[in-house]
Amino acid sequence: MGVLVVGLVVHNVAMAQLWDLGLRGNALDVVAAWKEALLLVALLVVAWRVRRFPAVKAADVLALSYTAVILVYWLIPQDVLGGEATARGELLALRHHLFPVAAYALGRLMAWAWEERGRMGALIVLSATIVAVVGLVDLAFVSLQAWRESGVPGWYREQLGLEYEGLSGLPENWVFNTGDEENPIRRLVSTFLSPLASAYVLVVGLIFVLSRPFRWWWGLLALLFYGALLYTHTRAAFAALVFGLVVLAIAQRRAAPAAIAATTVVVGALFLVAYPTIGVSTSYTPTELEWLRENAEQEGDETDDPLSGDDASTESHWRNLREGVRVVAEHPQGYGLGNAGVVAKRTGVEIRAGESTYTELGVDAGVAGMAAFMLWSLVVFAGLWGRKAWLAASFATVLVLGLQTDVIGIHWLAFTIWAAAGLALGTPRSPGQPAEP
């Protein structure tokens, strides 16, 4: 469990480094499958040790129902549904959609074999600490040019098939475009090589830390995590943290998390306004500037006000969500696995929907798959309520983030949160009592 949780934190940067060292193609694909292989081995080992399955819960039945829907859609030929996915795309999508189910199953089995369940929180704190420290050190001491010359662009482009043009092969969201060609600002990406994934790990870490009784060391960790979170410049994560802390306050019947949530609203807004001044400045190459100018001519001018609802980033997220909902509504039977999100982009087929977990599921597995996942998730959340307050709040936060982000495509979230949920559902509920932290 520890190897999976911490290993998934460093997976992206490790794979990029291996690509840079010359391990590429099928050989690197095999190495990158370590997480699926280890998860399968863990499931088999724990199942063998338990020898019998725990009492079936409603959440277990719904997890099996969701799995069945995904498998049926995997077996349906693409041309029957109008999809265009390749066989590789279908396998990638199958892994993508069922990864949280496997994590949940491992957690449910381990609830019988592992009496000490509190260590999952420690693993989350360790993960968030790695993300925060590495990310801040990177901003302070590693130049963007060093990343341009690293294996990251090649790993994205040649290994994953993800073409990024605006930043020399690096994802464009590594930099916050202030509108001033001379003053682009870097965002914290850490080991995930993504400001969004890094931010979401930090949000979960903050919710756990702030659920603890106050101690000075928890306070220091909270400041570290929040400082790193601010430098990801991920507004969705700022809003998600507020939401998660309000849920935590209700679950624990404490006012402190709600007060902290209100404080983060003010601090976050001030930070966004000041970011062009206090952020880590970098520079564009001539080629990048040429691409950015051409792109600006095609896309038109957008406001750079970080508190505006009509800036380029926000408008892009809303547009993707609206288009995804429209596609699912017009084609409720779905297109088959592999026709949405990063999987479609990697395999070169039309991307029917992107970003939102729910619309991607609706495209790949129809309304049936989307509804099965949502119902399973809601029942899991209901089961967590009254058992683990921090986990209920984290789980609800991740589900909300799923509206604009493919959260189950972030393997750390898909494994850690769903495995922790499976573990927690093996603990008894205490009716009428506040949830334990």
Describe the structure.
By secondary structure, the protein is mainly alpha-helical. The protein is built from 19 helices and two strands. The longest helix has 28 residues, at 357-384.
- Radius of gyration, CA atoms, in whole angstroms: 21 Å
Strand order within the widest sheet?
A: 1-2
Order of SSEs: HHHHHHHHHEEHHHHHHHHHH
- Residue fraction in strands: under 5%
For the secondary structure, the number of strands is: 2
- The oligomeric state is single chain
Extract low-pLDDT stretches.
Answer: 430-434
Note the total helix count.
19
> Overall pLDDT, averaged?
91
Which class do the helix and strand fractions yield?
Answer: mainly alpha
The percentage helix is 55-70%
What distance lies between the first and last C-alpha atoms, to the nearest angstrom? 21 Å
Could you give a short description of this structure?
The protein has 437 residues and is mainly alpha-helical. The protein is 68% helix and 1% strand.
List the helices and strands and how they pair.
Blueprint: H1 2-20, H2 26-32, H3 34-50, H4 58-75, H5 78-81, H6 87-113, H7 119-141, H8 144-148, H9 152-159, E1 175-176, E2 185-186, H10 195-210, H11 216-232, H12 235-252, H13 256-278, H14 286-299, H15 312-330, H16 341-347, H17 357-384, H18 389-401, H19 411-424
Antiparallel strand pairs: 1-2
Helix pairs in contact: 1-7, 1-9, 1-19, 3-6, 4-6, 4-17, 6-16, 6-19, 7-10, 7-11, 10-11, 10-12, 10-18, 12-13, 12-18, 15-17, 17-18, 18-19
